[in-house]
Design a protein that fits this description.
Layout lengths: L3 H6 L28 E6 L26 E5 L2 E5 L4 H10 L3 E8 L5 H10 L9 H7 L9 E3 L13 E3 L5 H7 L15 H20 L4 H23 L11 H13 L5 E5 L13 H24 L13 E6 L3 E2 L11 E2 L1 E7 L7 E4 L9 E2 L11 E2 L2 H11 L20
Parallel strand pairs: 1-7, 1-8, 4-12, 5-6, 5-7
Antiparallel strand pairs: 2-3, 4-11, 8-11, 9-10, 13-14
Length: 423
């Protein structure tokens, strides 16, 4: 099994930077074990313009930077600072010690659907499970809803049993509560509460007895999984009185559901989305006026998520922030220069931001060359290295799997995790 401990013993990982505090909330240098590490994926669909936050390209005359923007620095992280996006600086000031920015990440396409599959799975098949589905499937019987999708893409592949989508209109909550019966053309009734409770208990006992009396190895596996599913269904019914399963279309609206799911042990992975409303992030025209407020909304929402994680007790550590990795990404970047409509077109190199424990934070890994292509890196150190490997979505996925003690070779061929960002 691939483990972080083996990496540390071999001397290939870099020491972790010191951790600071967020506002008035004290934080200690804790590190969740691989088995207890949780993940939140925040996806910005449409393709963001990395030169408006992550890519400090002020010295590159071939890149059109935004008017009124300037180079900002927090700790060792250089970024694009702009008065219309104060939440970017606020987030980095509070969390730069736990933040890694990956610049120049290649997604090998400029088509939205293909780039989304590559960013989330490392492949173009659409049948391969994505990073959160793989992570959630590990010891999935511990969780009622291992991967809870509030928004954004999901590619469950053959791990669909680990993935649940809430539905944009609260479909999951309607199923759990029984309100979905009223959606049919012919409304049907159900048993009253005492009768339903009696039926649930009977079904639970029969499922357990069926698992105990399996007649073959295959029968034992199927019966055991059915028993687990019955237990999870019962747990979901109880959860409807404790938490909501319905979020909104922006990260800030989805924070409480995500935090509840993690803190109650309902899920290991939660996916959120920053959709950007009707126009979204696909800014082929009027790039700056379209993208700038989206960046502000995104960073404000992620900041609220991080604060909520820091204020909530963890399941194995002091707070959820001490055991949760937040991954923020989009399926592609945007071209370095404005087009005739003051927009920017699709670009196959992008950025990602990872925030959480077990990272060598306060660091930017990778970068862009003069043509705005990604620079190669040494995956052992994370430093830019001319003879190294191109930073790719597969590199990110392999690194996330390694953080959870999942062997990346089982899911990603020919790509090494970025050991230099693992503490």
């Amino acid at each position: 099994m691939f483990s972080r401990r083996r990496l540390l013993q071999s001397g290939t990982a870099v020491g972790v930077a010191g951790l600071a505090s967020l506002g008035l909330t004290p934080r200690t240098a804790r590190a969740a074990t691989a088995a207890d590490t949780k993940f939140v994926f925040v996806f910005a669909p449409g393709g963001w313009d990395t030169t408006r936050v992550f890519a400090d390209e002020f010295s590159n005359d071939d890149v059109d930077m935004e008017a009124d923007s300037q180079r900002g620095t927090v700790g060792n992280i250089s970024f694009v600072d702009h008065p219309a996006r104060p939440s970017v600086r606020t987030l980095l000031e509070g969390w730069h010690d736990r933040t890694v920015i990956l610049n120049g990440m290649m997604v090998r396409s400029i088509a939205h659907e293909i780039c989304t599959m590559i960013a989330m799975t490392g492949t173009t098949s659409g049948l391969t499970p994505d990073w959160p589905a793989i992570l959630a499937s590990v010891d999935r019987d511990r969780y009622t809803l291992p991967h809870l999708v509030l928004g954004g893409p999901s590619f469950p592949g053959d791990l669909g049993v680990a993935v649940s989508r809430t539905g944009a209109s609260g479909q999951l909550e309607a199923l759990v509560s029984g309100r979905s019966r009223t959606y049919a053309d012919i409304v049907t009734g159900g048993p009253n509460a005492p009768a339903e409770s009696l039926l649930d208990r009977y079904l639970g006992r029969r499922a357990a007895a069926r698992a105990a009396g399996a007649r073959s190895a295959v029968d034992a596996v199927l019966a055991a999984q059915f028993a687990v599913a019955v237990d999870h269904a019962a747990a979901l019914k109880d959860l409807q009185y404790i938490m909501s399963f319905t979020g909104g279309t922006e990260v800030a609206d989805q924070v409480q559901v995500a935090v509840d799911a993690l803190s109650l042990g309902v899920s290991r992975c939660v996916s959120l989305a920053s959709t950007g409303g009707a126009l979204g992030w696909d800014s082929h025209a009027d790039n700056d006026n379209q993208q700038s407020p989206l960046w502000e909304t995104l960073f404000s929402g992620v900041g609220q998520l991080l604060q909520a994680l820091a204020a909530t007790p963890g399941t194995s550590e002091a707070t959820l922030a001490d055991e949760t990795v937040v991954v923020v990404l989009s399926e592609m970047g945007r071209s370095p220069q404005l087009n005739a409509f003051n927009g920017k077109d699709h670009w196959p190199y992008t950025s990602a931001m990872i925030i959480g424990p077990n990272l060598v934070g306060d660091r930017v890994i990778g970068g862009f060359d003069r043509s705005f292509y990604g620079k190669p890196i040494d995956t052992v150190s994370g430093d830019i290295f001319e003879g190294g490997s191109i930073l790719s979505a597969e590199s990110l996925g392999a690194t996330l799997l390694a953080m959870a003690d999942v062997d990346p070779l089982a899911y990603v061929d020919g790509v090494d995790p970025i050991l230099g960002m693992l503490a």
